[in-house]
Amino acid sequence: MPVISTNTAANSAVRYLNVNSADQSSSLSKIASGSRINKASDDAAGLAISTRISSDVVALEQAATNASHAIAMLQTADGGAANVSDILMRMKALASQSASATVTATGGADTMRAYIDAEFQELDNEINAIASSTRYNGQSLLDGTGTFGNVLVGSDATDLISLSLETTADLSSATLGIAALAVDTQAGALAAVTALDTALDTVSTARANIGAAQSRFEFRAATIATSVENLSAANSAIEDVDIAAEQAKLSSSEVKVQAAVAAAASANSMPQALLKLLG
After folding, report:
1. Alpha-carbon distance 236 to 220, whole Å?
2. Keywords on this record (predicted)?
């Protein structure tokens, strides 16, 4: 029914213009941001899932850093322990030399053994120096005084790996049982050979424990990297916009906006046409 007091056609055209304009703006914002979810109303459930996944990814990235720090610490400890092992082998060589009855010198066997013992004692002191000076971030790693604990290597508070070097790598000469050794006599040298074998076994055990812990952290770091990759892919499927599909929606919205503008203009001319009937 043609009327002039209420332009129903114009109201309808404007309503569709607003709807199509909102769709156009939404598509533009998604394309510009690259995200399918720019506000909660776009996908409330998807937003909640994406937020949780994103928080897990952030936590896992830090966990990867934690694991790398633990690996670096263990590598530092193993490097120091390797040096201790080398020194112990040299000390065993000196003890074996002093234990031999063939040791002779101008001043006599005991004088020669005193020279050997001088190096032997210096090497003993160097073991203690290595044990106390092998540090990571201010913590001594090889003298039993460091304080360690759990390393967080996941996105949950229970994802922990214990790092307890204080109980597995105390390589001071007293702990190794060589602090009181001397090779200035043949008897002392013979006793030193046996004690040094035990000390070498202790260092080898410590290095094995360090290596085992390092291996576990390395595998965990690889697992974390895989998890970050997979979670990022899952989050992308939820959050990232499909540019091709959204561009198609934008093109459709643009055409609809133009059509609604034309329809509104046409509707606004209808009352003018009706006024001609009054003439």
Report:
1. 24
2. Bacterial flagellum, Cell projection, Cilium, Flagellum, Secreted
Q: How far apart are the first and last CA of the chain?
A: 19
**Does position 83 have pLDDT exceeding 60, yes or no?**
yes
C-alpha 201/C-alpha 176 separation (Å) is 9
Asked if residues 172 and 131 have their Cβ atoms less than 8 Å apart, the reply is yes
Residue 14 backbone phi and psi in degrees, to 5: -65, -40
Q: Say if CB 72 and CB 194 are below 8 A apart.
A: no
Q: Rounded to whole angstroms, how far apart are CA atoms 168 and 161?
A: 15
Q: Which residue has the tokens 């606004």?
A: 268
Shared domain for 230 and 259, answered yes or no, is no
Task: Note whether 131 and 85 are within 8 A (CB).
Answer: no
pLDDT at residue 130, as a whole number: 94
Task: Output 219 or 17, whichever has higher pLDDT.
Answer: 219
Contact 193, 92 (CB under 8 A): yes
State whether 104 and 229 are in the same domain: yes
Residue that wins the pLDDT comparison between 11 and 222: 222
Asked if 89 and 213 sit in the same domain, the reply is yes
Structure tokens at 110: 């005991």
162 domain-assigned: yes
Number of domains in the chain: 2
Q: Taking Cα atoms as reference points, which of 131, 212, 120, 205 lies closest to residue 168?
A: 205
